[in-house]
Each structure stands twice: as structure tokens, then as C-alpha cells.
Amino acid sequence: MASSVLIIGAGAAGLMAARDLLAQGYAVTILEARNRAGGRMDTLHPDGFTVPVEADAEFVHGQLPLTLGLLQEAGIAYTPVQGRMIEVRKGRWHRQDHFVEGWDILLEHLRGLEHDMTIRDFLNTHFPEHRFDELRRSVQRFAEGYDGADINKASILALRHEWINEGDEEEEYHIGGGYGKLTDFLLAHCVSQRCVLHFNTPVKEVHWKAGGVEAITTDGRSFAAGKVIVTIPLGLWQENAGKNAIDFIPAIEPQITAFQQIGFSSVIKASLEFKQPFWQEYEKELGFVFSEEIFPTWWTQLPHPVPLLTGWINGPQANAFAQLPPEKMLQYALYSLSAIFGLPLIFLEQQLVAWRITDWGNDPFSRGAYSYDMLPSKTARQLLQQPVSNTLYFAGEALYEGSHPGTVEAALVSGREAANKLMAN
Fold this sequence. Notes:
Blueprint: E1 4-8, H1 12-23, E2 27-31, E3 43-44, E4 53-54, E5 59-61, H2 65-74, E6 78-80, E7 84-89, E8 92-95, H3 103-112, H4 119-126, H5 133-145, H6 156-164, E9 172-175, H7 180-192, E10 196-198, E11 203-209, E12 212-217, E13 222-225, E14 227-230, H8 234-237, H9 239-242, E15 247-249, H10 253-260, E16 263-265, E17 267-274, E18 286-290, E19 297-299, E20 308-314, H11 316-320, H12 326-341, H13 345-351, E21 352-359, E22 370-372, H14 377-384, E23 392-394, H15 408-424
Parallel strand pairs: 1-2, 1-14, 2-10, 7-18, 11-15, 14-23
Antiparallel strand pairs: 3-4, 5-9, 6-9, 7-8, 11-12, 12-13, 16-22, 17-20, 17-21, 18-19, 19-20
Helix pairs in contact: 1-7, 1-15, 10-14
């Protein structure tokens, strides 16, 4: 039993951990609640679309060694994201290098900051005057829209590095065929190494003692091993105000509490394909649009000439639209594009060929998209990165320590680190 491992969850972290363990001769069984692998790597091929649609993870955010290394090993092509960034405020278009008054003072205060606080408290302390109204709005839009962070809870120190180095962004990439190609590669590798996979297998309970675990599924099946790596998304740990999705017997209260101390963001994503790329009439090289509409962020597929626009609502705003039917969210998406481009709604409806709305907050097996740091998050992660009795291990993007949080890279690295710790014990 000592060399047998259960992995709960077949997302990026679970597949990466399995790959590394299998390479060292461990017997690995993966239990996955969904009917597929990949978790929040979910490349769809919906009817009506001429190209694959990424329901969640879409970009490789910079020179990420593990992600790019796997893509190169698999022979999966990836291309740099191109296009100009445009900000639209009150119907007027601005290049993204538009200077917001006070930004230089903001960076100065950030560099000198010694004690952590929430983003809200930081703004109220250092920028209370009316002349900084636009700066405060800009900071809130950035924190909520990009990091998915609730500024009433999010740590300012956690975002400091990102903001100070905002002008030094690394090149981002699109994956040819989508992240599903990476999922398929990892999955095929695990299967070839005789990994046992069970889909449609939600785990209800984990009974454990030092050196032994038994996972009980919702349909009453039992799986035993010497150790377990739990890679379920943070949203499931936090579901129902602290009643976690899996019961551990005996209880692991310090770990359950720690999972509540990490922020988790929701995302609603709209994928809209049109007959023609009408946006090229406004900006031939349009890459990203940032606005104040309901769907504030949009991007194209440049350099690929595909008439597909992707809209994005993140963070607290996504929570505000939870439970709305997809048809209603489609209308909000079209309203947003109508305001951004100054086009009649009927024109957009006539141009629309195919659409899909994905709400990760309503997904029963994730309950959100990715994590952000609150004030106690760093201490919480340090606890969760340590195994319980060298038997229970935890992994996932929320447990990553590094400069690329909230990414597939974060999940892959966390899965590898959990596997390394397990093998060292």
C-alpha cells in the first residue's frame, strides 16, 4: 500500500502529480467527478463555431517554464498574442498607455509599504481626495477585472509586484487547438503508464490514518491506497459556508479553516462568433478592449483572422450576475458591445453566428475560477503545503507560491510539488 496513491481530481494539478508519480513506479488511481479530465482547462467544440472555444483557461501568461516545456515536449504549437489594447470610457477610445493621474504616486507608496492591508484600506489611507477618484476606480477595475479580487478582502502586498512591474509584461501565447491539447497529452501519458482513471466518480468521504486512506464515492464505491493527493478546486473547499465537499474522517479542521482564508474568484465568459470581424472598422489590430460595461473586457483572436470575440466578467461583478440564464447574459454581452462600438443592437444580433456563455461560479465541480490572496492567505498556504501525517497531501493553483498565480502553470507546479513531497516521505 505504501507505493499506492489516490489522486482526487483530474485537472492540471492532478494530472501533473500523477505523471511524476507514475514515472517513479507508484501505482496511481485518479478519481474525477466530471465525465472528462482537465478541470478548468476546458476546450469546447460547440455547434455553429468554426474554431475551438476555451471555456476557461485560454492564455499562457508569459515565459512559464513548466507549461511551455510540456507544450514543446508534446509538439503543441503556441503563438504570441497580438493586437493593441484599447480602453473605452464614456464612448471615447483611448490607447492603454493613457496616464491616470496619481499612478506614479501609487507606485511610490507601494514600494515603501511595509505592512499589509486590504486594497480598500490602502486606497482610503493614501488616496482619499476627490482628485484621485479616477485612480481609485482604475485600481478597483484592475484588481477585480484582472485578478478577480474583492478589494475589501484582497491583500495589497500580494498585488504589489504585479503592479510595480506592469510595464514589463511578458509575452502571452495562444495554444493551437486550445488547452484541451495539453489535457489530452497529459492524460494519454498517464494512461500509457497504467494509471487507473475513474470518471463520473465524486468523492464523498475520505477515511484516513497514518499510512492509509479510503475514499468513499457518492455511489458507495470504495478506493484504498497508502496516500492521497486532493486537488479539488478551492471553491469546493469553501462551498456552503465552510461545509466542504468532501468529509475527512478524522476531521482536519486546521486545513479546512485555512482553505477559507484564501480568496476565490468567479468568472462569466461569453464566446461570440460573428459573420465578419466588424471591429476591424474601428481598429485593424484590435487585441483587447477594456470598458465600463457589464462585460467590461473583450479580446480577439489575433493574429488568427477569426471573427470571434470573447467577453469576460470577473470577481465580485461575476458574483452579482450568478444564477442568470445564459440567454440573459448573452443580451448583456451584446448590450456591452453595442455601447463599446456604438453599433445598433439589431446589427449585432444579425451578425451573430454562434454563442456560448460559461459561468464557472455555477459549475458544481469548481464553484469559481481562480484564487487571489487575502490578508491571511500566505500563512494559510504554508499550512496547506504541508502533508497531514505524511498521508494527506493537497495541491491546486490556490496553493502555488510564485510570480504567476491563478494560472495553469500554478496548478501544474503545485501538482509537481505535492508529488515530490509525497515521494520524499
